[in-house]
Amino acid sequence: MLYPLVNRRSHLDTNSKLLLYKTVFKPVMTYGFPAWYNCAATHRKKLQIKQNRILKMMLNLEPFHSTDDVHKTTNVERIDDWFQRVLPKFWMGCTTSANPLLQHLPVILD
Q1: Calpha distance 91→34 (Å, rounded)
Q2: In this model, does residue 108 exceed pLDDT 80?
Q3: Residue 47 in contact with residue 36, Cβ under 8 Å?
Q4: Domain map of the chain by residue range?
Q5: CA atoms of 56 and 40, how far apart (whole Å)
Q6: DSSP one-letter string for 53-92
Q7: 4: how many CB neighbours lie within 10 A of its CB?
Q8: How many angstroms separate the Cα of 109 from the Cα of each of 89, 99, 103?
Q9: Is 59:67 a contact under the CB 8 Å cutoff?
Q10: pLDDT in tens, 31-67
Q11: DSSP label at residue 24
């Protein structure tokens, strides 16, 4: 449904496409990130590949373009880097929660 807005032939400017990515695509891809973080690295890699493809499509870049350049240009973190940054905040929120089930979750950090 959003593909016509972000594909290579879209007339939206790059900043609008990136705003759409940050407000729609990324929240959908990272929903339930504690579960994603604990899954196998191959599954997280698939999520990273999907992110790279979407960003390259939005910037109208070839698939073989360097993903490091894409992330620097767009100022978008890699999925694993984002997990590493957000996960400690999540665990801190769980330990300070009023819910006793969340207070006793085992903290899993690398």
Answers
A1: 9
A2: no
A3: yes
A4: 3-103
A5: 25
A6: HHHHHHTT--TTS-HHHHHHHHT---HHHHHHHHHHHHHH
A7: 10
A8: 11, 21, 16
A9: no
A10: 777 777 778 889 889 989 999 999 999 999 999 999 9
A11: I
